[in-house]
Amino acid sequence: MRILDFYKEYPDELSCKLKFKEIRDQEGITCKKCGGLAHYWKKDKWSYECKKCKFRTSLRSGTVMQSSKLSFQYWFIAMHLITSTKKSFSAKEIQRQLGHKRYEPIWAMMHKIKSVVGLRDADYQLSKWIELDEGFFETVDINRDKQVPAKRGRGSQK
Ligand SMILES: [Zn+2]
């Protein structure tokens, strides 16, 4: 999908949630508690309720978005960028584009999307992944005990 079509179709959080629900409805919901397949839709709770045992399943539960606090729109934008372009986007870049404060949840989201769409780390050039992870990992300085002065900034041993 081209970027203009994407933003026309998913301009806000609600449009993303509704699309996500549509896909889940097609897939079908299985109750975690009793295995029941029939559910009511609780509109005010954005949850499915099992017709048999009343157990509630949130829209995100059991999906890649489970336990994520990021908005549906974030997920849609990230999925769009990851799947519709040939470029690999670093988590840092997505974070910057979204204007999100924290890096870690964005990194985790991208990691999940990539694993779901079947892109393994090996499919990406190493240099791109180094760029991606640069802001996240603090690695051990291997020369610390050897009294070798570390280079500063990019390319530093740290
Ligand atoms: Zn049930």
Helix content: 40-55%
The largest pleated sheet is described as: 3 strands, antiparallel
Mean pLDDT: 81
| Strand-pairing-aware structural class | mainly alpha
Biggest sheet: strand arrangement: 1-2-3
Distance between the termini: 40 Å
User: Treating each run of at least 4 consecutive H or I residues as one helix, how many helices?
Assistant: 6
Oligomer: single chain
Present as ligands are: zinc ion
Q: State the order of secondary-structure elements, H for helix, E for strand.
A: HHEEEHHHH
Overall strand count: 3
Report strand %. 5-15%
CA radius of gyration:
20 Å
Describe the structure.
The chain contains six helices and three strands, in the order ααβββαααα. By secondary structure, it is mainly alpha-helical. Strands 1-2-3 form a three-stranded antiparallel β-sheet, with no helix packed on it. A hairpin with a 5-residue loop joins strand 2 and strand 3. The longest helix has 15 residues. It starts with a helix and ends in a 25-residue tail after the last helix. Bound molecules: zinc ion.
Task: Draw up the topology in text.
Blueprint: H1 3-9, H2 13-27, E1 39-42, E2 47-50, E3 56-58, H3 72-84, H4 91-98, H5 104-116, H6 126-133
Antiparallel strand pairs: 1-2, 2-3
Helix pairs in contact: 3-5
Task: Summarize this entry quickly.
With 158 residues, the chain is mainly alpha-helical. It has helices at residues 3-9, 13-27, 72-84, 91-98, 104-116, 126-133, and strands spanning 39-42, 47-50, 56-58. A hairpin with a 4-residue loop joins strand 1 (39-42) and strand 2.
